[in-house]
C-alpha cells in the first residue's frame, strides 16, 4: 500500500468518527429535555436476603453439622445387628466352565502320567535288581546259566520239535528209572536237561 492510500483511509476513518460524535451530541440534547428516572430501591430486599443468609450460616456451622451427622450415624449403627447372616453361592458362569473343565482334565492327565511314571520307575528298579542277581548267578554257576540260556534261545520249529521229542524221551527214561528205584538219577537229569 502507498502512503496516499493510507492517508485516504485515515481521512475516511476521521469522517466516520466525526459523524458518530455529531449523532451522540444530538441524542444528548434530546435526552436533557426528559425527566430522569430514579433507580428502584432494593434495600428492603437486600436486607431480607442478608437476614436469611445469616440464619442459614448460624444453623449450618461445621460443629452443628458434625453433631447431626454423628447422631445419625450412631442411630443407624444401633439399628444394625451385630451378626449378619449371609449365604454364599458358588456358580459357574459361561466363561469359567471351560477353563475349569480343561484344568480338571489337565490335572487328571498329570496325575495319571505321574503315577504311571512312578510305577514304571519301581518296575525298572526291580528289573535292575533281577538283572544283577542273574549276573551273579552266571558268575557263580556258569554251567547252569549256559543251560538256561540254551533252553530259552529262539530256535526254528524243527529244532523245537526235536527238543520236545528228546524231552519226552528223557522223561520216559526218568520215569522208568524211578520205577526201578533210582530217585537220585532223576535230580541229575532234571538239572542236566
Automatic annotation (TrEMBL):
This is Uncharacterized protein. Keywords: Membrane, Transmembrane, Transmembrane helix. The chain crosses the membrane at residues 99-120. Residues 182-193 have a biased composition (Basic residues). Residues 165-193 are annotated as: Disordered. Residues 165-181 have a biased composition (Basic and acidic residues). It comes from the Bacteria.
Amino acid at each position: 500500500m502507498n502512503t496516499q492510500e493510507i492517508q485516504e483511509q485515515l481521512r475516511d476513518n476521521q469522517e466516520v468518527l466525526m459523524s458518530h460524535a455529531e449523532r451522540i451530541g444530538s441524542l444528548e440534547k434530546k435526552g436533557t429535555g426528559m425527566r430522569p428516572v430514579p433507580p428502584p430501591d432494593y434495600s428492603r430486599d437486600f436486607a431480607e436476603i442478608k437476614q436469611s443468609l445469616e440464619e442459614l450460616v448460624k444453623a449450618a456451622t461445621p460443629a452443628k453439622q458434625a453433631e447431626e451427622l454423628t447422631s445419625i450415624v450412631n442411630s443407624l449403627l444401633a439399628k444394625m445387628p451385630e451378626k449378619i447372616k449371609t449365604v454364599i453361592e458358588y456358580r459357574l458362569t459361561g466363561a469359567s466352565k471351560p477353563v475349569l473343565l480343561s484344568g480338571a482334565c489337565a490335572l487328571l492327565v498329570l496325575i495319571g502320567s505321574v503315577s504311571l511314571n512312578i510305577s514304571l520307575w519301581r518296575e525298572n528298579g526291580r528289573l535292575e535288581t533281577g538283572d544283577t542277581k542273574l549276573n551273579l548267578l552266571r558268575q557263580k554257576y556258569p554251567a547252569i546259566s549256559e543251560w538256561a540260556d540254551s533252553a530259552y534261545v529262539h530256535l526254528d520249529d524243527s529244532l523245537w520239535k526235536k527238543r520236545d521229542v528228546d524231552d519226552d524221551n528223557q522223561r520216559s527214561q526218568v520215569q522208568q528209572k524211578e520205577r526201578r528205584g533210582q530217585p537220585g538219577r532223576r535230580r541229575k537229569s532234571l538239572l542236566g536237561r
